[in-house]
Design goal:
The chain is an alpha/beta fold and 355 residues long. The chain is built from 12 helices and 12 strands. It has helices at residues 14-26, 45-51, 57-66, 88-95, 151-175, 197-211, 213-216, 226-235, 247-258, 298-310, 314-330, 344-353, and strands at 2-10, 35-40, 69-74, 100-108, 111-122, 132-137, 140-145, 184-189, 220-225, 242-245, 268-272, 277-281. A hairpin with a 4-residue loop joins strand 11 (268-272) and strand 12 (277-281). The protein binds 1,4-dihydronicotinamide adenine dinucleotide and magnesium ion.
């Protein structure tokens, strides 16, 4: 089967790591029956400086019309406000209907702390609708922000989180051992205080689970209040499999969880909608190491596997995850952020060799 993949390197080391994802796809063994065609697409701050737009309409149209999936590198966002500039990845998520941000945090067996969880963050509402206002009361300023939780978005995120729990179980069965022998889902909320808004989130996700026990019954259902979730996540990270959360809690939890596995250079993500997925390393454009050929390609390679997984190709995804784990476990051909002295390209080749 032929798959067309959009490549959006963006800025800085995005241009060094996206080719790693491409090479891994090209090197997939023929047993999987996949052929890839690649389309290079523009976006980013450098592109904005040249043309006045950070995300050309052409990029969006090509993704929608001719791509089966895509990989996004990183963008450099200016620290001061630049007129006319807004983040292309935030715009892409909106334009492509990518309502879930999926971020796995996984150890390599025997190395570091045992953790193999994925945080599924709602990507469209909560406090991120940015409906804020400021007014004066008794001569003092008061600011308010609206936290919006809808039944519709909560249903969608609940359903995709449950599907991810099933999919992960399948990848585990294909790819060998793991911390978990059966799937579980943990719904994060603060409905002891925000009983209406977080209450709706919790009840809706629970409702999705209960409405189809024939499909989801093998998944253990759990709930955790967000503050004690932070505590438990650092005390006993091995307990969590799929964690589903409203936007803000998901943002905070996922950055915190990345600290459990060391380098930003190994943490992957996927932006997922009903009919499209964009794999994206969670790190930025890393200007401090740009051009040195030492950026860690692992986050991007894992994001490439995630893209395949969400496109429905679990077997090649499992193969890539296993090759990355084997490379990390040996801990010989790794980049300087992991204490090694290998180059980006050497790591790519070592991982390809293990496919
Ligand atoms: P960063 O993630 O680019 O870098 C943080 C630190 O981690 C740096 O020391 C960097 O060298 C290291 N690092 C990151 N990725 C690495 C990799 N693959 N291999 C080895 N080392 C790696 O975050 P920073 O420095 O805060 O931001 C730099 C630029 O990136 C900013 O313009 C920021 O706005 C942008 N950014 C973009 C993101 C995106 O595109 N989604 C996310 C985060 C930041
Ligand atoms: Mg964040």
């Amino acid at each position: 089967k032929k798959l067309t993949i959009g490549l959006i390197p963006g800025d800085g080391i995005g241009r060094e790591v996206i080719p790693a994802g491409k090479q891994v796809l090209q090197a997939l063994p023929s047993q999987f029956g996949l052929n890839f065609e690649f389309v290079d697409l523009n976006a980013g701050f450098d592109y904005f400086k040249k043309t006045g737009t950070a995300l050309p309409e052409e990029t969006v149209q090509i993704l929608k019309q001719s791509c089966d999936g895509a990989l996004f590198g990183a963008v450099s966002s200016p620290t001061t406000k630049v007129a006319g500039y807004s983040s292309p990845i935030v715009a892409l998520r909106k334009k492509m209907g990518l309502y879930a941000n999926v971020r796995p945090v996984k150890w390599v067996e025997g190395v570091g702390r045992p953790v193999d969880m994925v945080i599924v963050r709602e990507n469209t509402e909560d406090l991120y609708i940015k409906e804020e206002r400021i007014f004066e009361k008794d001569g003092q300023k008061v600011a308010e922000a609206i936290k919006r939780i809808s039944e519709n978005a909560s249903k969608k995120i609940g359903k995709i989180a449950l599907e991810i729990a099933l999919k992960r179980q399948k990848v585990r069965e294909l790819g060998g051992s793991s911390l978990h022998t059966s799937p579980s889902i943990t719904v994060v909320h603060k409905s002891n205080v925000l009983s209406v808004s977080d209450g709706l989130f919790r009840e809706t996700v629970k409702g999705v689970y209960q409405s189809d026990l024939a499909r989801y019954g093998s998944i253990e259902y759990k709930e955790q209040i967000v503050d004690s979730m932070v505590y438990k996540m650092f005390r006993q990270p091995e307990e969590f499999d799929v964690v589903v959360a409203p936007n803000l809690y998901g943002d905070i939890l996922s950055d915190g969880a990345a600290a459990l596995v060391g380098s930003l250079g190994v943490v992957s993500s996927a932006n997922v909608g009903d009919d499209f997925v964009i794999g994206e390393p969670t790190h930025g454009s890393a200007p401090d190491i740009e051009g040195k050929g030492i950026s860690n390609p692992v986050a991007t390679i894992r994001s490439t596997a995630m893209m395949l997984e969400f496109m429905g190709y679990q077997e090649p995804a499992a193969k890539i995850y296993a090759a990355v784990d084997a490379n990390l476990k040996e801990n010989k051909v790794v980049t300087p952020d992991l204490g090694g002295n290998s180059t980006t390209q050497e790591v790519v080749e070592d991982i390809i060799k293990r496919l």
